Amino acid sequence: MISVIIPLYNRENTIVDSIHSVLNQKRTNGKLFNIELIVVDDCSNDRSVGSVAKFENQTSPL
């Protein structure tokens, strides 16, 4: 398992692409890695948290 931590502060315009990039990483044999993704928000005052929350039902605990 690979753990990735993304610190987040007011990045609603880029966080979705960042999450997709992490979750779509593949091994050289084409299989997806087993990835644990942790997003840590530092009191963003934009819609960053809402953007991340959209992934909750699509993945195992995010």
TrEMBL record:
It comes from Lactococcus lactis. Keywords: Transferase. SUPFAM superfamilies: Nucleotide-diphospho-sugar transferases. GO terms for molecular function: hexosyltransferase activity. Gene3D superfamilies: Spore Coat Polysaccharide Biosynthesis Protein SpsA, Chain A (3.90.550.10). InterPro entries: Glyco_trans_2-like, Nucleotide-diphossugar_trans. This is Glycosyltransferase. Residues 3-57 form the Glycosyltransferase 2-like domain.
